[in-house]
Amino acid sequence: MPRPRSAEPDLTGSVGFVSTQKVTLFDSDTPLRLARGGVLAPVEVAYETYGELSRRGDNAVFVCHALTGDAHAAGYHPGARRPGWWDTMIGPGKPLDTTRMFVVCANLIGGCQGTTGPASTNPATGAAYGMDFPLLDMVDFVTVHRALLKHLGVTKLVAAFGGSLGGMQVLEWALRYPEDMATAVVIAASSRLSAQNIAFSAVAREAITRDPGFAEGQYAAAGTAPQMGLSIARMMAHITYLSEEAMTTKFGREPQESTFTPGFGADFAVESYLRHQGESFLERFDALSYLYLTRVMDYFDPFADAAATDAIAAAGTKVLVTSFSSDWRFSPMHSQRIVRTLERAGVPVTYRTLQSDYGHDSFLLEVPGYQETVRAYLDRALEELG
Amino acid sequence: MTVVTPLRSDLALIASLIAQGSRVLDLGCADGSLLRHIIDHDRCTGTGVDTDPDSVLGAIRSGVPLIELDVDSDLGMFADDSYDVVVLSRTLQTVRKPSAVLTEMARIAPRCIVSMPNFGYWRNRVRLARGWMPRSKDLPYEWHDTPNIHHATLHELEDLFTGLGLTIAQRVPLRADGRPAKVADHLANLASSSAVYVLTR
């Protein structure tokens, strides 16, 4: 049968066409109890799965997404030209090999891509939660994802697996419930944001909250949106995701058009790129989700509790930590702090600093040694499961 | 089914010097075969350290906890007395500051096992006497393309150990094939191609 070739993505090594599922996991009888107080019900969760769950339910990997990610980690949505955000990692024959593993990815609570968040309808009022949405903690993400795994019939994870905020969530999960998983894979993450990290988050939030369209957080009810603030937040965050080398390689000092038109427009290619990033972000992200989720990162500091490593050390859960040499958002020092703390607690921990010029975003890319490291680690983990 | 390859003879010797149930840090662990062996057979736990990309992947694939770091600058990662034994096998001659590395090792564990090629081996002396830099199984590299940036005889090596306040609890001279050389103590510097030392504080 003839196919329109140009419109079809190349499905080699891909999980193929996928769709996002939804499930309601908490209702008014059994609401989600949040770590900082308050309850939430119902909680709807958007998720995708790839591969098949074994009869014993023990070949699963839970993939935790980064700040602005979603449940669509791999494969193609019908009609889409670009695959899910971690398609380099997930698929048949890839490091998260879907011929052997059952891979689950879900949108975070507090997010805006199908899972309940500040933009969802508050059943008590019939309007969007807005700022009435409760404050979240890293462990709330874990609580919701454990409920999803129970719903799916997963008995044990081969790995909890995540990058950036996703890696922070994996760390929280591994420290709280190490018996859930054989291994924890923490990529380009942090156990504690630095003052510089928090400063960037703070400016992003200021841009959003000072936008007149923010309307004290009740912008959904007011019929406005802090678009300017959210796009500036995204533009600034995007700078922190790339290294100086990566920006030089990608844009240099090239003009956006064939020649410069001196003035105050987006004359350099990098300016135009950032503007595009800021604008396209508006189509897919909610400003309050940005506030709620970045705040979870700011307050995250699991090792502040001296007993934080007791459970994982007792359970014998293995941890893989990787960082990227040019990442200055979460530099290798952030990862090394995680490694040092776990190693000193007697946790079997493996660590690599991978050489890459692409900055924080390296974790989403193919980097020499990176996919091989994950593959070697998970192949061994599967082998040990027997 | 895992294929069991026998442990290289010099590593087998080192394994025999490690008590059952020890927590072992192996600096320059290559593919992790020593650690894999003592974890599987001797109830040991431990961590390997290496930076060679193929070695690192091999160790990870074999399930040995592996931390990629620079032995010269990053041993501060490990806490005082956090291991029972630190192993440095055929690596001391490649680090920038052997004395600093040995001092760190002695901080991390009460017992260190160190092996190093012996520049004073009689075959090396013969080659040098004929006007050529030594080349042997233990010193296989061209002078301009070698990871070995320090050369010492056993005399000089032992002087360094004692100078750092380390006690030589045991010395095992090795032949070129990595098996123990049965030689009188005073001939070790002449008759051994390399040697393994057990050091205590």
Report what the structure shows.
- The complex is a heterodimer of chains A (386) and B (201).
- Chain A is of the alpha/beta class and 386 residues long.
- Chain A contains eleven helices and twelve strands.
- In chain A, the strands form three sheets. Chain A has an eight-stranded mixed sheet with strand order 1-4-8-5-9-10-11-12, with helices on both faces.
- In chain A, helix 3 runs antiparallel to helix 5 (227-241).
- In chain A, 51% of the residues are buried.
- The model of chain A has no long low-confidence stretch (mean pLDDT 96).
- Chain B is α/β, with parallel strands linked by helices.
- Chain B is 29% helix and 19% strand.
- Chain B has helices at residues 9-16, 33-41, 53-61, 98-108, 122-129, 154-163, 188-191; strands spanning 23-27, 45-49, 66-67, 85-89, 111-117, 167-174, 194-200.
- Chain B has a seven-stranded mixed sheet, with helices on both faces.
- Chain A binds chain B through residues 318, 320, 336, 339-340, 343-344, 346, 348-353, 369, 372-373, 376-377, 379-380, 383-384, and chain B through 23, 45, 47, 53, 56-57, 60-63, 65-69, 77-79, 82.
Task: Give a brief rundown of this model.
The complex is a heterodimer of chains A (386) and B (201). Chain A is of the alpha/beta class and 386 residues long.
Helices and strands in order, then pairings?
The complex is a heterodimer of chains A (386) and B (201).
Chain A: E1 21-26, E2 32-33, E3 39-40, E4 43-50, E5 60-64, E6 90-91, E7 96-97, E8 102-106, H1 138-152, E9 157-163, H2 165-176, E10 181-187, H3 195-209, H4 219-222, H5 227-241, H6 244-250, H7 269-284, H8 287-299, H9 310-315, E11 318-324, H10 332-344, E12 349-354, H11 370-385
Parallel strand pairs in A: 5-8, 5-9, 6-7, 9-10, 10-11, 11-12
Antiparallel strand pairs in A: 1-4, 2-3, 4-8
Helix pairs in contact in A: 1-2, 3-5, 3-8, 5-7
Chain B: H1 9-16, E1 23-27, H2 33-41, E2 45-49, H3 53-61, E3 66-67, E4 85-89, H4 98-108, E5 111-117, H5 122-129, H6 154-163, E6 167-174, H7 188-191, E7 194-200
Parallel strand pairs in B: 1-2, 1-4, 2-3, 4-5
Antiparallel strand pairs in B: 5-7, 6-7
Helix pairs in contact in B: 1-2
